[in-house]
Amino acid sequence: MIKNDAYNLADTVQMKKPHACQKNDWEILRLGADIKLKCMGCGHVVMLPRAEFNRKVKKVLTKANDPVNLKKEHYLPKDQIARPNIG
After folding, report:
1. What is the average per-residue pLDDT within 7-26?
2. Distance of alpha carbon 61 from its chain centroid, rounded?
3. All structural domains of the chain
4. What is the Cα–Cα distance from 11 to 60, expressed in whole angstroms?
5. CA 33 to CA 68: how far, in whole Å?
6. Residue ranges of the alpha helices (H) in 20-68?
7. Which long-range contacts (CB under 8 A, 24 or more apart) does 49-57 make?
8. What percent of the chain is modeled with pLDDT above 90?
9. pLDDT for the residue numbered 75
């Protein structure tokens, strides 16, 4: 388990158990009460409650817009993630 402030939008994190596609890294697409994640292996998107995510996350692999992420097929840069217009 890592602290809540250790991860941000568009970071890639490693979970404790791998996905069905055998990849274990996920991109954070949404932060809030629920956290939306995208598998970097197959592109599958899931939403988890924050408490469940905090239990299942192992560590932060790379921070947002790291050049390492750009090589991954399913990575979506931080500036391309849809954000609601609240204002």
Report:
1. 91
2. 10
3. 4-62 (2.40.10)
4. 7
5. 28
6. 50-56
7. 50/4, 54/1, 54/2, 54/4, 55/1, 56/15, 56/16, 56/17, 57/1, 57/2, 57/7, 57/13, 57/14, 57/15, 57/16
8. 45
9. 78
Contact 47, 36 (CB under 8 A): yes
Residue 10 identity (one-letter amino acid): A
Confidence tier at 10 by pLDDT (50, 70, 90): confident
Q: According to DSSP H, which parts of the chain are helical?
A: 50-56
> pTM of the full predicted structure?
0.75
Distance from C-alpha of 72 to C-alpha of 76, rounded to nearest angstrom: 9
Cβ atoms of 25 and 14 closer than 8 Å: yes
